[in-house]
Design a protein that fits this description.
Elements: H1 3-11, E1 21-26, E2 39-50, E3 57-72, E4 75-83, H2 104-123, H3 149-153
Parallel strand pairs: 1-4
Antiparallel strand pairs: 2-3, 3-4
């Protein structure tokens, strides 16, 4: 899914029903953190990766997307950062990461979870646990921390296990 797909899903989501206008943008990878006024929200879900160097493909249940959000002067801002993985097959270790390609249903679930987080933080809605284990994708296999951009940033949930 490209940023255009994410933006379309965002524009057709529940964010339109909120009392403030919210903008959605992609965060450049070269930003070293944001001000303390921004709050961070991280999701890990199933996605597919394709190496840009050798075209090898793989799936991971630890694909990570990071959001920074804030509400300031009546306007909400959300910035998204897709965290990638490096290819195990070709040894693409030059600092280049393949970005996750989330299925559309997973992307919508991530945006629903983000919406719930925004409603809790800025609109005082009660925290809702929405765990549905029977719908979770079961994936077993190794998580290679050296190939995971989220691990290198210290935000991978697998890294804290």
């Amino acid at each position: 899914m490209s940023f255009i797909d994410w933006n379309d899903a965002f524009n057709n989501s529940k964010f339109n029903d909120l009392s403030h206008n919210w903008s959605f943008d992609l965060m450049p990878k070269n930003i070293n953190g944001l001000s303390k006024e921004n709050r961070r929200y991280v999701q890990q879900k199933y996605a597919h990766f394709t190496c840009t160097r050798c075209s090898n493909g793989w799936s991971s249940a630890k694909a990570t997307v990071e959001f920074y959000h804030r509400l300031d002067c009546g306007r909400g801002t959300i910035r998204m950062l897709l965290l990638g993985q490096q290819c195990k097959k070709c040894g693409n270790r030059n600092g280049t990461y393949s970005e996750p390609d989330f299925p559309s249903d997973v992307m919508e679930k991530i945006l629903d979870n983000l919406h719930r987080c925004i409603c809790e933080k800025y609109y005082g809605q009660p925290r809702v646990k929405n765990r549905n284990p029977e719908n979770a994708k079961k994936m077993n296999g190794p998580h290679i921390r050296e190939l995971c951009e989220a691990c290198r940033k210290g935000i991978c949930k697998e890294d804290r296990a």
